[in-house]
Amino acid sequence: MARRWALLSVVAGALGMLPCGVQAKVVSGINVSETVTLGDATLVLNGAGMRAVAMFRAYVVGLYLPSKGQDAKSVMSMSGPKRLHLVLMRDLNGSDLGKGFERGVMDNLTPAEATSLSSRLTMFDLSLKGLGEVPKGTVILLDYLPGQGTRVQVNGRTVGQDIPGEDFYRSLMLIWLGDHPVGSFLKQELLGTQS
Question: How is residue 191 annotated by DSSP?
Answer without folding.
Answer: T
